[in-house]
Design brief:
Layout: H1 5-27, E1 30-31, H2 41-46, E2 58-59, E3 62-63, H3 69-86, E4 90-92, H4 98-109, E5 115-118, H5 134-137, E6 141-144, E7 147-148, E8 153-154, H6 156-166, E9 170-173, H7 184-194, E10 197-201, H8 206-210, H9 217-220, E11 224-228, E12 239-243, H10 247-261, H11 267-304, E13 308-309, E14 321-325, H12 332-341, E15 344-345, E16 347-349, E17 364-368, H13 370-374, H14 379-394, H15 399-410
Parallel strand pairs: 1-15, 5-6, 5-9, 9-10, 10-11
Antiparallel strand pairs: 2-3, 4-12, 7-8, 11-12, 13-14, 14-17, 16-17
Helix pairs in contact: 3-11, 4-10, 6-7, 11-14
The protein binds pyridoxal-5'-phosphate.
Pyridoxal-5'-phosphate (PLP) is lined by residues 35, 97-99, 126, 128, 174-176, 201, 203-204, 228, 239.
């Protein structure tokens, strides 16, 4: 056998170097992707534990593998924390991601060929609820709720009509561009009339719900909430399902998770989730308030600079997210790429009036304030951020100069907030040497 240790070590070090460069890139940039966040130091520590190398199929105390003595205690505690935070009867902390949570719930409540009602993609719906996503994978047919562009929300009267006509088995709510609470209460009568299961995909707004600053879906008509745990809830890349439903339906959800759609449930991430839930019980309300305050202010400031921020009628947003029509500034692709060159990271996005075919160059950009809030942005910082975006896009100032200004500004945010312990964000953790 030829010894190629040097060559392979070089490959390994190259990969490690990419990770270090990536951390530095984010350290110097302003992160505004609405679906991302960073974890607390104690939660981050969990990802490096031996929990990450084990299996624990099934439910606590009824496993198929040995070695789960502490895992069972962990999972019990994570479920308790989840139930306390969401004031719910049931919590399943096993799904690996938001999409996986959605798949488990679809598996539980539908059969191939069933019809379900979902938000449209251009109305902010996530790909997992689209016909070519998890919903399609389950072989389901879909009807989309009509969207009211002025309200930046689903149209209530049109939705009532649609549900009465089509009687879907599941009414699925929640978006990836989620500016305003879903009018669940207004739809309650029709849910009861058609006997549909109501599922609310709270991936984006989970931390705002838990921080009591958005809406309370389980008290407004939803039986199940699915979610990722790494957006406004600043935990690990993982998933969760929360239920206020019958025991019978909940058992179906649990079987949808395992053995339906996963085997191993990434116990290290579940431990990190538990710590995030405990931290959110302590700090979540203040955090969620500041996230929304920052988003609303950023909307106002960008609007003053002449950007077309959607949802103006209702104060631009009641969440962490803004949707901005930048077709007059060169389109979503150009604007997102230009901002990236200056160290401001966000994504292009379809707007409600865009054809799905425009997804590679849509009219809009999406902005989220949850990560900048996590690292300490307050009102004056948000105003300065709007000024930077204006300088780059409206005034076309020199990109290299702007990149230095962005990095300089970012360097003053040196601590992760709303958590136990202290840690410098984007710091590379070196355990190799
Ligand atoms: C509404 C919604 N649901 C589900 C997901 C999928 O979550 P994950 O990336 O954790 O699979 C997303 C992702 O952004 C989302 O926006």
């Amino acid at each position: 056998m030829v010894n190629r240790e040097d060559e392979f070590l070089e490959d390994a070090l190259y990969i490690r170097q990419l990770a270090q460069k990536h951390n530095k890139f984010f350290e110097e940039s302003i992160p505004l992707i609405a679906s991302e966040n960073i974890m607390s130091p104690m939660a981050m520590e969990m990802l490096l534990t031996d929990f990450g190398f084990r299996y624990a199929e099934g439910l606590p105390h009824k496993r198929y593998y040995q070695g789960n003595y502490y895992v069972d205690q962990l999972e019990d505690r994570v479920m308790d924390l989840g139930r306390e935070l969401f004031k719910s009867k049931y919590v399943d902390p096993r799904p690996l991601s938001g999409t996986n949570s959605n798949m488990a719930v679809l598996y539980a409540f539908t059969k191939p060929g069933d019809l379900i009602a979902t938000p449209s993609l251009s109305g902010g719906g996530h790909i997992s609820s689209a016909s070519f996503g998890a919903v399609g994978f389950r072989g389901l047919k879909t009807v989309n709720y009509p969207f009211d562009i002025d309200e930046m929300n689903i149209d209530v009267d049109g939705t009532i009509k649609l549900l009465k006509q089509n009687k879907p088995k599941v009414c699925w709510f929640g978006q990836s561009v989620f500016l305003f609470p879903t009018p669940l209460k207004e739809l309650n009568d029709v849910f009861n009339e058609i006997g549909a299961t109501v599922v609310y995909d709270g991936a984006h707004v989970l931390g705002l719900i838990a921080g009591k600053q958005f809406q309370d879906p389980l008290r407004e008509g939803a039986e199940i909430i699915t979610g990722s745990t790494h957006k406004t809830l600043p935990g690990p890349q993982h998933g969760i399902i929360i239920g206020e439903t019958s025991e019978d339906k909940w058992k179906k959800v649990q079987r949808g998770v395992f053995p339906g759609t996963l085997s191993n449930h990434h116990i290290n991430a579940m431990a990190a989730l538990g710590i995030t839930l405990a931290e959110h019980l302590q700090f979540g309300e203040d955090y969620a308030k500041q996230i929304i305050k920052n988003a609303q202010l950023l909307g106002e400031e960008l609007n003053k600079y002449g950007f077309k921020v959607l949802g103006e009628k209702n104060g631009f947003t009641k969440s962490h997210t803004l949707a901005v029509d930048v077709s007059a500034q060169g389109g979503g692709k150009y604007v997102a790429e230009t901002l990236e060159k200056a160290g401001i990271i966000l994504n292009k996005n379809l707007l409600p009036y865009d054809d799905n075919k425009k997804s590679q160059n849509p009219s809009g950009i999406r902005i989220g304030t949850q990560e900048i809030t996590r690292i300490g942005f307050k009102e004056d910082d948000v105003k300065h951020l709007a000024e930077l975006i204006n300088d780059i896009i409206m005034k076309n100032k020199n990109i290299e100069k702007m990149k230095s200004e962005v990095a300089e500004f970012k360097s003053k945010f040196t601590e992760i907030q709303y958590c136990f312990g202290k840690f410098r964000p984007y710091q590379y953790i070196n355990i190799y040497k």
